[in-house]
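TL;DR need structure tokens for one chain.
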Amino acid sequence: MQGTRVAARYAKSFIDLTMEQGVLEQAYADMKTISSVCESNHDFVTFLKSPIINTDKKQAILKEIFAGKLNKVTDAYIHLITNKKREIFLLEIVSEFIKQYKEKKKILTAVVTTATRMDDIIRKQVIDIVKNSSSSDVVIEERIDENIIGGFIIRVGDKQVDASISRKLNNLKQSFKENPFIKEF
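>> reply
TL;DR here they are.
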């Protein structure tokens, strides 16, 4: 709970700052870059959360990793976060920033789970379906789960449509268990 509250406050203040400076879109791209680094390298997140490594060392490594990749406002903000000893919340701050940015820009995230990778035609159809149900822009987050066998699962916010083969098989299995017919002798 503490981390979420801290992340929300820091993300909100950073959004306000970037809007004031006119670099919101660049900051969003920077946050996506930082997010991808954190997601692809668990050791990096562990490094940020380590109480053993001092702040100066963390700042030097962060500067080395993101040298030339981030806007100067984002770079200064990360420096501020590490000075305040909040780098342990960097991943949460980044996630919260992306969430608040999408809310501010009215962008919906549709999480689409399929058994195999979607092609461009299917991806466009999914975007059109979600856009028709709301007036927001849509971003698709693709997930692959071979356990659903086929079909798809779409989740937008708290709504979910499960049209997977595994769901249909489970429903069929349940209907066989509830056999309404009486066995004849």
